[in-house]
Amino acid sequence: MKLKSPKHVEPTDAKERRETNVLVCYPTETLPKVDLAAAFTRRNGAEFFNSIIVPARHAGCVDVPAGYFARILSTEGPQVGDLNIWNTHNIAERFYSGKTRALHGTHVSTGDTLWSNLPYMRPLANITCDTLDWYGFDVDGGSVHDVIGTRCDPYTGRLLSGENYHQCCHSNLTRAMADHFDMDLSEAEMHVHDVMNVFMLTGFTHDTHQYFMKASPVRPGDFIELEAQTDITLGLSACPGGDCGDEHSSDTASCFPLKIEIYAPKSLDGFMPSKINLYDRSHGK
Q1: Where do runs of H (alpha helix) occur along 182-254?
Q2: pLDDT digits 0-9 by tens, 41-66
Q3: Would 255 be classed as within a structural domain?
Q4: Is residue 90 in some structural domain?
Q5: Long-range CB contacts (< 8 A, 24+ apart) of 14-17?
Q6: Which residues contact 40 (CB under 8 A, 6 or more apart)?
Q7: What is the tally of structural domains in the chain?
Q8: Residue 32 in domain
């Protein structure tokens, strides 16, 4: 956070320095385009495969084969979910929120790709449908489905409140991952990573540019749907902040379960699983 009262005097050319041109760091024109029309064709007629219910203040994991669709669904009330994604067969490959944000912006929606970490750097899933795409950006600069936040965790909670809290999304995801992949909690925790905040309404304040949250506009029946681009495992925590309109990690906020439904397309004709990044990893040697 920048100082409100700077310690140094503005130089005489401060205005000129501030008015330089804005350049997008990562132009996306050369990225593979998400073929939504082809995805819609595969989705039409897709058959229900399986589902899980993620209880309030808990997390769950589910495997999604390449080419299958995963729908994250609000069922009972406004609820935010923290999403992790791993390659089912190699959990060292996982969702890379920072690069997804750098490529697609602070908030993601239909047509955006969820990318994996280095050195894999490939599409894990494409967003093919989002019933909250109407929200856009509000007057506060807020929007839905952010890839800014890191997940609520017990370490930051301890620093800020001096208390231990175990139903935060980091701990929820750690327990769920340990159960799903049959590993110790200490090992599982090392693979829990920065999230996509599903349904969460966030932004940065205009004055101090601090991360803020507002009550999510999600309502029962709303969903966001992903098409898996390789075999992936989703880990989803139903955040203890509920709709995140009042509190972040709390046993008093109104919280609701979330549901993940998996759909199997009748045909994978035309679907090509994503391939690991072609960079040769020589690093100039």
Answers
A1: 185-189
A2: 999 999 999 999 999 999 999 999 99
A3: yes
A4: yes
A5: none
A6: 128
A7: 1
A8: no
